[in-house]
Amino acid sequence: MRRRRWPVVLVVLGVLALLAWYVGYTQHVVKELRRASASQGRMYSRIYRALYDTSTTGDAYVPALLDLNDEVIQSGLPIIITDADGRISLATNLPKDAALDTLAFMKAMDQRNPPILQPRVGAVHYGDSPIVEGLRVIPILQAIAIAILVGFGLYALIERGRADREKVWAGMAREAAHQLGTPLSAIAGWVELLRDEATTATAHRAVEAMGQDLTRLERVSHRFERIGRPPRDEAVDCAALVDRLAEYFAARAPTLARHVRIISYHAPGALPARGDVVLLEWVLEVLIKNAMDALAGRDGLITVSASPMPEGGVRIRVADDGPGVPRALRKRIFDAGFTTKDRGWGIGLSLARRIAEENHGGRLVLSDVDRGAAFDVILPG
Fold it and tell me: Is the model's pTM score more than 0.85?
């Protein structure tokens, strides 16, 4: 659940950061505009003083002009002055990189702001003040940030809806498992009664097969109880696991119209791994049943094997010698809802991969083989 909350937390933090950025930059703009207004006020004051000072001669305008020049420099406005022949005579407030190529920077300024021409004197080329440059860029960055936050918000809503749906399905699965408990207990009692009353070898075999099927049903019921709950982390003997499943399905494989053999093999001794044995059985059952469906209408061989990985861990492979998976479908077979069967739900392989990856930190992959199909469940050591 914590993993599903991170998009919401990220969106909230992003909104707060964007608001803080917006408020901070707005205050910066207000401060700069006030500074520009004060500068303009000082320039007007100096001009007003020079115009109305009758006690001095025309030389009084010189200090005023110098003051105006200082105010322009302090404003940060980029300015380049050229003479009548187009030569640069003064450049101020240029960026450091523009100082290397003043002529190119002047042409860039002229494209934005036409120069002010003074006949027989020259021209004044000017750019944008720092506050104007900021107002050109900052709104674009804020729009991008808002778009990203909206995207994360939509993702969070989708994840929230998926989490709610999964919670409902998990509740329904656990309720179904609870409802199955009573009839399974009753059937177990009847199987024990039949075992005591069986008098022939055929009857004994039938009762034993019924007992195995009942055990399998109880395991399936326990699986549904585990949906939506944290997986167990226990020692799993992969060698015993593949032997048990291969033996169970071999007794139920078709033997009349077609003959399907199911065998298992593994390295000698135990092959330990960490995981949830109930969920791993679920994964292998999905793969074995898919292999049996792939051999529909033909004889074939299904091999369930386990082997140690060179880098550590165990690989469990379910392989068949059927027609294989068409290359056009290889990228879609693990998508939820995708199926090639007339009455399939298309959730088996998707669920199996999720159990392998999310619950066990491993992988479920379709391997390249010369014939048929081979699915590998790779479990870390």
Answer: no
